[in-house]
Backbone:
């Protein structure tokens, strides 16, 4: 799907009393820039050249009716973008709002950051915070285990292409290099998305004039899948840690995984975790009383499903047996036929509730714009077509592939 910065995209929303503006800048997705991409959002929007401390900036945002603002990276298919978003009230709510002045302020703080001698003034402080966040993940029992599993399962870098797995880059990075990276990000014409009422239309001419010095960019956005390879035999790793609680991860993959199989993985996760069914908690906690907590992690683009349980170290085999029983029950057509209507009803309730959500409307618009992902409504309609027989046939190809057991040494009882 080819997209271009030539046209500004407008999504009309008369339900909300705020207007939402997003600027998307295409950025290099290479792994060598992971640290730079991770650090940059922390250096922007909280201060600027004109407003060099946070309190002054907050007052200025209030005066210019900036209700919310964010910056950060986003991924669509094979492309990465750096995004700025701003939310301002509509004139029908606050008559004194001057849209163009708010936009001028917005662009001023984007294009005139808090920099001195080509270095970010707050670089050292923000770098320390980012490193501290990485240390927090490393000390967290569940988060650290998930990251270790991602490294073990990774086949092409797609499970480890973020900062936690590339922290060494932070040690080599300098403030001047970060500023040079920032300039490559913003010195181009962005994709502009406007979400709100008709008064936003007056901003189109403003943006076209502001970015007139930049050439239009055309980007070819394509869907990416990174389906993991199913091993010939189940892989098993056990480690011991000084914890009271033990953690068991059971990772399932699909034999000969294809894109059309993704809907079955989604349905399985929903059967396991949705309120109307909640089969995972019912089986492992309510019925068997085996877990302190349990969850399900779905990686659709990798074709994997993980069942996670916090357990006593002696309950490993029992939990594995219980999960196996649970998955075997998915081959019981009569049972699945009983569950599906309630699940479908919950889908519809969620969809109706989301229709009034600003974020839902934005996401649906963007899904249609990029045209590589289905909207929530399309996904729900697809899930509702799956029959109990089709699910039964799919379960024959869902295989346990990896067992990771973090055994707690301390007595939990």
Residues:
């Amino acid at each position: 799907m080819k997209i271009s910065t030539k046209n500004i995209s407008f999504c009309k929303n008369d339900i909300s009393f705020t207007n939402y503006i997003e600027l998307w800048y295409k950025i290099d997705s290479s792994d060598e820039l992971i640290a730079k991409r991770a650090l940059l959002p922390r250096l922007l929007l909280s201060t600027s050249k004109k407003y060099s401390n946070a309190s002054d900036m907050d007052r200025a945002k209030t005066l210019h009716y900036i209700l919310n603002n964010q910056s950060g990276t986003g991924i669509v298919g094979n492309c990465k973008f750096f995004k700025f978003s701003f939310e301002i009230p509509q004139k029908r709510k606050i008559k004194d709002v001057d849209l163009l002045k708010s936009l001028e302020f917005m662009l001023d703080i984007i294009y005139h950051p808090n920099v001195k001698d080509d270095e970010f003034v707050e670089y050292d402080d923000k770098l320390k915070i980012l490193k501290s966040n990485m240390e927090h993940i490393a000390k967290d029992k569940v988060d650290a285990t998930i990251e270790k599993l991602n490294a073990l399962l990774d086949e092409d870098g797609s499970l480890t292409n973020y900062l936690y797995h590339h922290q060494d880059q932070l040690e080599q990075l300098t403030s001047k290099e970060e500023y040079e990276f920032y300039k490559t990000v913003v010195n181009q014409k962005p994709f502009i998305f406007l979400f709100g009422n008709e008064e936003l239309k007056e901003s189109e001419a403003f943006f076209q004039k502001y970015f007139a010095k930049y050439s239009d960019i055309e980007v070819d956005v394509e869907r990416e899948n990174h389906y993991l390879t199913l091993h010939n035999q189940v892989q098993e790793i056990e480690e011991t840690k000084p914890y009271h609680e033990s953690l068991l991860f059971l990772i399932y993959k699909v034999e000969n995984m294809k894109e059309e199989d993704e809907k079955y993985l989604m349905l399985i996760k929903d059967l396991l975790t949705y309120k109307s069914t909640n089969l995972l908690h019912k089986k492992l906690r309510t019925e068997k009383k085996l877990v302190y907590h349990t969850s399900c992690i779905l990686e659709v683009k990798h074709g994997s499903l993980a069942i996670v349980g916090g357990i006593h170290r002696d309950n490993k085999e029992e939990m594995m047996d219980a999960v196996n029983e649970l998955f075997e029950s998915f081959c019981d057509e009569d049972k699945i036929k009983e569950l599906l209507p309630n699940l479908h009803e919950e889908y519809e309730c969620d969809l109706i509730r989301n229709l009034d959500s600003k974020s839902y409307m934005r996401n649906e618009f963007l899904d249609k714009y990029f045209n590589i992902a289905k909207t929530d409504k399309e996904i729900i309609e697809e899930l509702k077509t799956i029959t109990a027989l089709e699910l039964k046939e799919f379960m024959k190809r869902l295989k346990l592939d990896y067992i990771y057991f973090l055994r707690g040494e301390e007595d939990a009882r």
Q: What stands out?
A: The domain at 235-408 is CATH 3.30.830.10 (Cytochrome Bc1 Complex; Chain A, domain 1). The chain has two domains: 2-220, 235-408. The radius of gyration is 24 Å. The longest strand covers residues 79-89.
